[in-house]
């Protein structure tokens, strides 16, 4: 499966050795800043491939590898300073959502100025940015094809989503996902599932989103149970990478809602909680409320997991159980208590979700109340 996709302002190269197609784009630049985490870029082989190309064209570069999971605003601002001080004319982000999201924000701040908080609050708008090449290492976030980025404000621990820019060029090469361990394989694939489930049930759903959501869900449902027992299978990785990519288009065209809103509160308060893990913990009970509110939309997706689910509100419990059963089938069994959460944290989570992060569930198909948030969080403890 090798192809080129032009979506919005991004040219995406998909398939084995896809980075070769970006050589012409890379060769036009003189100074590069590579944005990564500590290990995955090198372990996957992607960093080595990038360095080889840069050396081939005699392009100087520096590596910024201080990006953590659930990245902080201060990391994006520090990266922006590196980009500006180095006079870089290209940023290459290598990683999953964290490095790519951080690089999106930093590439804007480097030329448009300001702080992350100013963009979160809408005080400042992206005007100019340094070109960005995104090399994706997971089959989960879809950030290589969408305009979104997620960062956590250091002072308030609020995890916010913003829309800084699309990458100019993106790479989806299944070879770079082969080194994902079993846990990350499960996490990232469930991330893609919740992207399409929420997009297909949001207020701004469309026929395009429904089409993408059904295809992505079918690919995940068929291939993830196989992949968790065959982690080096590149054909399975390729299908899940494709599912993740079209899920990214789905959320870019639509919107996530309650699951992402509550999860942002959780992993803002506890950065050790992986984003996708948080989604999976909250997802089953959230599916109950979503199916109850919009059963005709929810059933379109969830009947792929359980063909007996009907587009009726009375099947809300069946919808919850279908999601729970699928997650158990692929080996997901974590709880919020594993990350130190207790019932004492619930009121703070409610306050963050409903007050500070209210915009994240503005497209929910039903009003999100304190009682609903409380029930969903309790179900995950």
Please provide a written account of the structure.
- With 381 residues, this protein is of the alpha/beta class.
- It folds into 2 domains: 3-177, Rossmann fold (3-Layer(aba) Sandwich), CATH 3.40.50.1970; 182-380, Dehydroquinate synthase-like - alpha domain (Dehydroquinate synthase-like, alpha domain, Up-down Bundle), CATH 1.20.1090.10.
- Helix content is 50%, strand content 11%.
- The protein is built from 15 helices and 9 strands.
- The chain has helices at residues 23-27, 40-44, 46-56, 73-86, 97-112, 116-120, 182-201, 207-227, 234-253, 258-269, 275-293, 295-302, 316-329, 346-356, 370-380; strands at 3-7, 10-14, 31-35, 60-64, 90-95, 132-136, 149-152, 159-162, 169-172.
- The strands form 2 sheets. Strands 1-2-9-6-5-3-4 form a 7-stranded mixed sheet, sandwiched between helices.
- Helix 11 runs antiparallel to helix 13 (316-329).
- The model has no long low-confidence stretch (mean pLDDT 97).
- Assign an overall shape: globular
| Estimated share of beta-strand residues | 5-15%
What's the total count of β strands? 9
Give the ordered list of helices and strands.
Answer: EEHEHHEHEHHEEEEHHHHHHHHH
CATH architecture classification name of the largest domain:
Up-down Bundle
Determine the CATH topology of the largest domain.
Dehydroquinate synthase-like, alpha domain
Mean pLDDT: 97
CATH superfamily of the largest domain: Dehydroquinate synthase-like - alpha domain
Q: What is the SS-derived class? A: alpha/beta
Distance between the termini: 41 Å
Helix content: 40-55%
